[in-house]
Amino acid sequence: MSSECNTHILSKEINEEILFAVQNAVIITDPQGMILNANSRVKQVFGYTSEGLTGKNLSILFTSEDQDYLYPNLLYLAEQCEVFEDEIMLLRRNKARFFAHVRVSSCRKPANNLNFFSIIDIDKTKKMEKVFKQINYEDLVKLANGVAHEIRNPLVGIGGFLRKLYKSCVASVEGEEYYNLIHSNLKKIESIVEKVGFFAGMPEPVLKKVEIQEVMDIAKQDFQERINNTGCKLDIEVEPLELMADRILLIRAMKILIENSLDACEENPKITIRVFTVDNECKVLVKDNGRGIPSDILPYIFHPFFSTKADGAGIDLSIFKRIVDNHQGRIDVDSQKGKGTSFDISIPLERRKIIRTNLLENFSSI
After folding, report:
1. Which one of 48, 64, 234, 321 is separated from 9 by 20 to 30 angstroms, measured CA to CA?
2. 10-24: per-residue pLDDT in tens?
């Protein structure tokens, strides 16, 4: 801290700010973010000593993706005497990221032109909250993964021995029919095991810019022959747009929706798909004229292994919901028995708050 600041008697407002945050890590900067002083708690939170931080720019505590917008926006808000308080990601001295609750305020007087940063390390709390929220769900996932593993190995053996028996036996019309029946059912079980394994081990989304038109084009390719054979009228309108998403997972989700609609349709099948933007969201509306879902079982369609199909395992819609959930999206379903079903999916185009994506000084109001 400069000698001028050292000899200056702190004003009532500054004392109040320090007292407010005395149990937290406190950093005092000038309007440009240069650190003038910090209390001893910064060592526990960031790994720096007070002396080690003094003279450095506060930007060293922010992640690379927050250097362009969030950090300058906090300085801007302080300059405007606006108080900021939120949970953000910061960096420790060893470059490890952690969640912190940050409060930014300022004192703008001729003798005291200062910014105050009060920081609480909430990383362990956030991780514990996530664990408690997922504990029952994780038990289900572990169970599903165990079942898939236990079935997969004997299934491979059964398939191999079946082929050997078929080749060693004299072929007959009846034998051919039995073989095809057993083989088709084994393929169905293999498909279920693959889906359960994917559900249990689904990776976290790798978010990159994705063209939604490409996603829809690829998703419908696998069903083109079936669409042609059934005479299904597939009407797709896609507004050109990009969103931050996992391309592979999003394609799989759209495939599930299309297949689900095809399975539901019977006579004169018709599927309508609309993709467009509303505010900061990508909206996907999928509507079919199929048999519909009774209202009493509608709340359970996303539960693993619950199915309205006589020969279905009920895992597809669970995978679909988990993909949408992992993209921080929402799903609304409307259905009437005998009149069809519509899925309304909303996925954020941009998950970050405006303070992290734009410079606030470019806006007329905050």
Report:
1. 48
2. 555 565 455 445 678
Tell me, yes or no, whether 339 lies in a domain: yes
pLDDT > 90? residue 183: no
Among the three residues 76, 99, 121, which one is the final residue of a domain in this structure? 121
Same domain flag for 147 and 56: no
Number of domains in the chain: 3
Instruction: Compute the distance between CA of residue 26 and CA of residue 273 in angstroms, rounded to an integer.
Output: 53
Q: In this structure, what CATH number is given to the domain that contains residue 63?
A: 3.30.450.20
Residue where one domain finishes, among candidates 153, 180, 201? 201
Query: Do residues 12 and 67 share a domain?
Result: yes
pTM, entire model: 0.57
Between CA 174 and CA 180 the distance in angstroms is 10
Q: Give yes or no for residue 309 having a pLDDT over 70.
A: no
Q: In this structure, is residue 13 part of a structural domain? A: yes
Q: 306-317: string of b/e by CB count within 10 Å (b at 16+)? A: bbbeeeebbbbb
| Long-range Cβ contact pairs of 87-91 (< 8 A, separation 24 or more) | 87/122, 87/126, 89/63, 90/46, 90/61, 90/62, 90/63, 90/119, 91/46, 91/60, 91/61, 91/62, 91/63
The token pair that represents 349 in the structure block? 């185009």
Q: List the structure tokens of 154.
A: 């004997």
Task: Report the alpha-carbon distance of residue 21 to residue 41 in Å, rounded.
Answer: 11
pLDDT in tens, 325-335: 989 899 999 99
295 within some domain:
yes
